[in-house]
Amino acid sequence: MSLIDAAREVRENAYAPYSHFKVGAAVRGRSGRIYQGCNVENVAYPEGTCAEAGAIAAMVAAGETELTEVAVIADSPAPVPPCGGCRQKLAEFGRHDVAVTLATTDGKVLATTVGALLPGRFEAAHMEQP
Ligand code: THU
Questions:
Q1: How far apart are CA 85 and CA 120, in angstroms?
Q2: 20 to 30 Å CA-CA from 87: which of 1, 97, 115, 122?
Q3: Local structure of residue 77 (DSSP, 8 states)
Q4: Mean pLDDT, to the nearest integer, of 1-7?
Q5: Which residues is 67 bridged to in the sheet?
Q6: CA torsion, points 53, 6, 35, 119, in degrees to nearest 10?
Q7: What is 3-127's CATH number, 1.20.1090.10, 2.60.40.1080, 3.40.140.10, 3.40.50.150?
Q8: Atom of ligand 1 at shortest distance to CA of 18?
């Protein structure tokens, strides 16, 4: 299954009774395995989690800490960009050049990278003592 098809598949399971905006995400780990995630909302709105966060959590739970490809899909007029928090989460596990495919359910696609999504990212090096 392609990564975008994996994202499309898991989007069906999104729990989005508040926003009614279902999102599916899939990441490929260094092993080649695909991990899927969907958004899971909560009546206490800030407790909801994004699709990307779910896919990353599934990857880490399976014992992998490097992603090599990302896909996100939603039913929106234009491909939905990951939120700021998810950009930082993707950057934690993906190199700058990792391909990110953002897609709509009706076939619009935007190709970008983890690095392009988060220029100037906070990294471990910023915590080094001068
Ligand atoms: N959402 C995601 O899951 N991923 C994104 O990239 C953008 C937004 C979710 C969070 C919330 O459940 C809903 O979409 C509306 O913001």
A1: 14
A2: 1
A3: S
A4: 96
A5: 29, 94
A6: -50
A7: 3.40.140.10
A8: 12
Look up 52 and say whether it is catalytic.
yes
The pTM is what?
Answer: 0.95
Q: Collapsing DSSP states into helix, strand and coil, what is residue 109?
A: strand
**How far does residue 17's CA lie from ligand 1's centre (Å)?**
12
Task: Select from 20, 22, 83 the residue to mutate for testing ligand 1; criterion: most ligand atoms less than 8 Å from CB.
Answer: 83
C-alpha closest to that of 11 among 55, 47, 56, 65: 55
The minimum-distance atom of ligand 1 relative to the CA of 22 is: 14
pLDDT tens digits, 29-49: 999 999 999 999 999 999 999
Q: Which one of 52, 64, 92, 123 is the catalytic residue?
A: 52
